[in-house]
């Protein structure tokens, strides 16, 4: 039986079409660059009520025996491959769990978007699962996104102003800081779960501001 290292190397080579190199657990996120994208208004349909309760049973539906490769070089390369293959940033705003673009969903000024990926290798059928996280903003009539981590914090520059946003989805709150003058705004946050799922995307959710509140943290 192939070793885990062999499985990961074969997966990386197949996914990105290049010779795979040894994996590293330290990956530095890089901002997705390109021409500024105009905003649009399409909004996702979220899970609610009994449908949401049923979905969250056993969530995030990770196959038994699968290997978590979150925050590895392989996960980063697979994400680049899938985004390129699906061309999911060709349109600036697409809705649902499968077709998100660079603009925040729900007409929000910013959001924290995460996806849970599950894929299988063709060596011995081992399942690989990993999370990817994106911070997105809609500012000055333009949208952008940057890979981030599970802490929900990200930095960007819009209209010449450097900003920092942290979305604490577990506690339902977020803050936004304009670094040039130190202005800070705080928000109540709602997490919405999206359908459908579409391989390799097993689950998607978005934490977005719904109300500005006093800054008490």
Would you give an account of this structure?
With 217 residues, the chain is of the alpha+beta class. The chain has a domain at 4-16 and 46-149 and 192-213. It contains three helices and nine strands; from the N terminus they run ααβαββββββββ. Strands 1, 2, 3, 4, 5, 6, 7, 8 and 9 form a nine-stranded mixed beta sheet that branches. The longest helix has 14 residues, at 73-86. It starts with a helix and ends with a strand. Mean pLDDT is 76; it is low at 1-36 and 88-93.
Per-chain topology:
Layout: H1 4-16, H2 49-56, E1 67-68, H3 73-86, E2 110-120, E3 127-139, E4 142-147, E5 153-158, E6 161-168, E7 173-178, E8 183-194, E9 201-213
Radius of gyration from the alpha-carbon trace, in angstroms: 18 Å
- H/E topology pattern: HHEHEEEEEEEE
Query: Which oligomeric form is depicted?
Result: single chain
Let me know the average pLDDT: 76
C-alpha end-to-end distance: 52 Å
Question: What's the story with the biggest beta sheet?
Answer: 9 strands, mixed
| Total beta strand runs | 9
The parts where pLDDT drops under 50 for at least 5 residues are: 1-36, 88-93
Structural class: alpha+beta
Strand percent estimate: 35-45%
Please tally the helical runs, counting DSSP H or I stretches of 4 or more residues.
3
């Amino acid at each position: 039986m192939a070793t885990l290292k062999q499985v990961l190397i074969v997966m990386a080579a197949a996914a990105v079409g290049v010779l795979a190199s040894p994996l590293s657990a330290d990956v530095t996120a890089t901002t997705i660059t390109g021409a500024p994208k105009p905003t649009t208004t399409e909004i996702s349909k979220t899970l609610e009520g009994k449908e949401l309760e049923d979905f969250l049973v056993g969530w995030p539906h990770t196959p038994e025996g699968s290997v978590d490769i979150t925050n590895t070089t392989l996960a980063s390369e697979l994400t680049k491959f899938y985004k390129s293959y699906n061309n999911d940033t060709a349109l600036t705003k697409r809705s649902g769990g499968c077709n998100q673009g660079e603009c925040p969903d729900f007409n929000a000024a910013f959001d924290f978007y995460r996806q849970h990926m599950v894929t299988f290798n063709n060596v011995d059928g081992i399942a690989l699962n990993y999370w990817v996280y994106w911070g997105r903003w809609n500012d000055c009539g333009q949208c952008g996104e940057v890979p981030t981590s599970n802490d929900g914090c990200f930095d960007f520059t819009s209209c010449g102003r450097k900003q920092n946003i942290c979305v604490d989805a577990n506690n339902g709150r977020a803050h936004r800081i304009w670094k040039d003058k130190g202005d800070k705004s705080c928000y109540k946050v709602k997490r919405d779960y999206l359908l459908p799922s579409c391989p390799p995307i097993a689950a998607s959710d978005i934490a977005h501001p719904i109300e500005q509140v006093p800054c008490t943290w």
